[in-house]
Amino acid sequence: MKLSKPRGTRDFLPEDTKRRRNVENILRGVVKNWGFEEIITPTFETLDLFTLKSGEGIIGELYNFTDKGNRDMTLRPELTAPVMRMYVNEMQARQRPIKLFYFENCFRYERPQKGRFREFWQFGVELIGSSKADADAEVIALAYKMLEAVGIKGDLHINNLGVIRNLLSVLETEQQSRIMRLVDKKDYTGLEEYLEEINAPSELRVKLQRLIELTGNDAIEEARKLIGDIPEINDYQKLIELLEAYGIEYTIDFGIARGLDYYTGAVFEIYAEGLGAQNQVCGGGSYQLIKLFGGGDVPSTGFGLGFDRIMEVCEIEPEESSSVAIIAKDSTRLEAIKVANELRQHVPVYVDIMKRNFKAQMSYANYIEASHSIIVGEKELEEGKLTLKDMKSGDQELLTIEDIIVKLTA
To answer: How far is 24 from 29, CA to CA, in rounded Å?
Structure first.
């Protein structure tokens, strides 16, 4: 019986995996240079962790199950909530800010489409313990620089939800949440209908509609004229000044909402070309979740990079490196193994385990795209040397193993 992989999952062949690891390592290098440390959380968590954060409605999107102890569990659909739980459980005594990153697989039961899978990989960052614009700016700049490092010119849109929340403060909390979700989805028809339904003040409607349409360099000043010189607009201005110091290109966009209640201030999204409608590759902002999970009133700023979407548009290929195929006869096979043992401390090495003849071994070396082959022959061994062949040029040299190591690792 032939079995297929589950819908919404993928197999990554060696060539795919090499490319993904190369991009992953580039991203890791950037985030480590910004002073963030890697963490790992469990692949499954208690169901309550995610319903507390996102409500009972999220259960339909989860791979949830009851374990043998009759406990409600789920495969993680994202990583922010697990990181906040980790902080509450184990990191509250640490000096702030705490700068963390992760790269893990997540699971959502939703309809697969281009760039969206039921098992997907998320590269994320959480900066815990600062409510300053400096923290927001660092996190946003880091996201931009990570994408830049893998050759993606992201279109960064930023906002400060404090502005729109200030405008909506005359409404009930649930009404504010509903409006934010409609703005996030850019459902302007639905927004207009809902404002009519709740009989929102006409002045608020006009200001809201004008506010969420504001974009571009003059948008902050236009917002100040519209709703006054409120502290949230000044915070927005500070963020812009910091991003300019980082040399980041951005678009001010009061229509970015990130329609989840726990987002508090700065929010941002980054889009990339070549992905069609699903072109967002990064999203995040400042939020309050720790108190919800039993910790203190601690601010955080973070983002998630959609690694699978990045791989759809990233053109970076695996790095070329030296690899060696050992070519030997039956009479020199044991010596070939000893040579391989020594070389494997420096480069990847392939040794024939199929008892192929000389010609077939050389053919296999070409097939696996080895950069070099090393011929372990009886005459070479008598001289204490080996034949190193460059598989691209065909050039051959008779060298000691020490000289070969120097040449391959130079």
So the answer is: 9
Q: Let me know if residue 256 belongs to a domain.
A: yes
Full residue range of the structural domain in which residue 400 is found: 324-409
Helix (H, G, I), strand (E, B) or coil at 48: helix
| Residues 205 and 309 occupy one common structural domain | yes
CA dihedral 51, 52, 54, 56 (to 10 degrees): 40
- Give the CATH number of the domain where residue 274 resides: 3.30.930.10
Kind and range of the H or E run holding 271: strand 263-271
Phi-psi region of 54 (alpha: psi -120 to 50; beta: other; left: phi over 0): alpha
CA dihedral over 296, 105, 269, 125, signed as positive or negative? positive
Q: E strand or H helix at 278, and its extent?
A: none
Q: What crossing angle do the helices spanning 231-245 and 133-149 adopt, rounded to 10°?
A: 40
| Separation between Cα atoms, residue 352 and residue 328, nearest integer Å | 8
Which pTM value belongs to this model? Answer: 0.91
User: Which amino acid, one-letter code, is at 363?
Assistant: S
Helices (H), 344-376: 358-367
118-172 pLDDT, tens digit per residue, is: 999 999 999 999 999 999 999 999 999 999 999 998 899 999 999 999 999 999 9
For the record, the structure tokens of 376 come out as 């372990």
Phi, psi of 367 (to 5 degrees): -60, -45
Domain match, 346 and 292 both: no
